[in-house]
From TrEMBL:
<protein>
    <recommendedName>
        <fullName>Hexosyltransferase</fullName>
        <ecNumber>2.4.1.-</ecNumber>
    </recommendedName>
</protein>
<comment type="similarity">
    <text>Belongs to the glycosyltransferase 8 family.</text>
</comment>
<keyword id="KW-0325">Glycoprotein</keyword>
<dbReference type="GO" id="GO:0048363">
    <property type="term" value="P:mucilage pectin metabolic process"/>
</dbReference>
<dbReference type="GO" id="GO:0071668">
    <property type="term" value="P:plant-type cell wall assembly"/>
</dbReference>
<dbReference type="InterPro" id="IPR029044">
    <property type="entry name" value="Nucleotide-diphossugar_trans"/>
</dbReference>
<dbReference type="GO" id="GO:0005783">
    <property type="term" value="C:endoplasmic reticulum"/>
</dbReference>
<dbReference type="GO" id="GO:0005794">
    <property type="term" value="C:Golgi apparatus"/>
</dbReference>
<comment type="pathway">
    <text>Glycan metabolism; pectin biosynthesis.</text>
</comment>
<dbReference type="Pfam" id="PF01501">
    <property type="entry name" value="Glyco_transf_8"/>
</dbReference>
<keyword id="KW-0735">Signal-anchor</keyword>
<keyword id="KW-0328">Glycosyltransferase</keyword>
<keyword id="KW-0732">Signal</keyword>
<keyword id="KW-0961">Cell wall biogenesis/degradation</keyword>
<keyword id="KW-0808">Transferase</keyword>
<dbReference type="InterPro" id="IPR050748">
    <property type="entry name" value="Glycosyltrans_8_dom-fam"/>
</dbReference>
<keyword id="KW-0472">Membrane</keyword>
């Protein structure tokens, strides 16, 4: 465990930069924080939805220059920033940390409206959220029925990727009110260390979704050899310049989504997958099939992804070079489990300040 001591000073400096400078205009910690610590074990979460499990969030309020959040006008107020995130028992601790990070780094936190997606225990989860964030009035819980998508889900490389709630993002245009014309979708295993309004204001042009793209990735690996050799499918991306993008951070134009019925397009590919087995990675490939090559590019600072390690060994990862606005523990390893196990990756310490789980302190 001597390596933890050696990294403590680096952690303190990095955390100070995050906490003291929410805008992170010049934060580039990749050169300062490096890890090679392997992490191969998987841990089961030991938490529940009891209200006493989480501490009350720190206070937050709008700055003077913020426009009125219009609490009386509800979800349809045009001054609101809309954020959608799932609430699941296994990832609840991560979701609460994500919300806490958004509120702490936002200049206008009372102008952020949270759309929480659940598939079970709706009443218990809603009361937990309200007790943890008692000053958070702009929120609504949406029930996503697992049977909506259950019959379309195929087996994946990890069982966690097969959960119906992973597919709720496909149905945001149906679940959210028609007056909500744009939404930021966020996974539960991330923290935002910048003002979320900067992401909200991203221009999408003629595109329906925006996300950081990674065109250096080997795009062909996201589909099976059978997909690429089958003449029915291998022309799917003709005339497009498809790049990998992570669906855990997306800005979505819901008005366009509804107009072009993208949910049906995604479902069609899922139906084909059930019959032909054209991919292995859960909910990501249908998005790639529909949108890759038609994505509004967003700065990579808004998705420093892969911090959970690879899907097999869960090994530690480094940050990509450049500034950071969002840290994302996509992959098999989650920071709360590794911290509790006393076998954290170095970057997991950057998640810890936003953790409101009582037994972690």
């Amino acid at each position: 465990m001597h390596w933890i001591t050696r990294f403590s000073a680096i952690f303190s400096a990095a955390l100070a930069m995050i906490l003291l400078s929410p805008s992170l205009q010049s934060f580039s910690p990749a050169a300062a924080i490096r890890s090679s610590h392997p992490y191969a074990d998987e841990f089961k979460p030991q938490q529940n939805s009891d209200h006493s499990s989480f501490r009350e969030s720190p206070l937050f309020r709008n700055a003077e220059q913020c426009r009125s959040s219009g609490e009386d006008s509800g979800v349809c107020n045009p001054n609101l920033v809309h954020v959608a995130i799932t609430l699941d028992i296994d990832y609840l601790r991560g979701s609460i940390a994500a919300v806490n990070s958004i509120l702490q780094h936002s200049m206008c936190p009372q102008s952020v409206f949270f759309h929480f997606l659940v598939s079970s225990e709706i009443q218990n989860l809603e009361s937990l959220i309200r007790s943890t964030f008692p000053k958070l009035t702009n929120l609504k819980i949406y029930y996503f029925a697992p049977e909506t998508v259950q019959s379309l889900i195929s087996s994946s490389v990890r069982q966690a990727l097969e959960q119906p709630l992973n597919y709720a993002r496909n149905y945001l245009a149906d679940l959210l009110e028609p007056c909500v014309k744009r939404v930021i979708y966020l996974d539960s295993d991330l923290v935002v260390v910048d003002d979320i309004v900067k992401l909200w204001k991203t221009g999408l042009g003629q595109r329906t979704i925006g996300a950081p793209e990674y065109c250096h990735a080997n795009f062909t690996k996201y589909f099976t050899g059978g997909f690429w050799s089958d003449k029915r499918f291998n022309g799917t991306f003709k005339g497009r310049n498809p790049c990998y993008f992570n669906t855990g951070v997306m800005v979505i134009d819901l008005k366009k989504w509804r107009r072009f019925r993208y949910t049906k397009r995604i479902e069609k590919w899922m139906e084909i997958q059930k019959m032909e087995r054209i991919y292995e990675l859960g909910s990501l490939p249908p998005f790639l099939l529909v949108f890759a090559g038609h994505v509004a590019p967003i700065s990579h600072r808004w998705n420093q992804h892969g911090l959970g390690g690879d899907n097999v060994r869960g090994s530690c990862r480094d940050l990509h070079s450049g500034p950071v606005s969002l840290l994302h523990w996509s992959g098999s390893g989650k920071p709360w489990l590794r911290l509790d196990s006393k076998l954290p990756c170095p970057l997991d310490t950057l998640w810890a300040p936003y953790d409101l789980y009582k037994h972690s302190h």
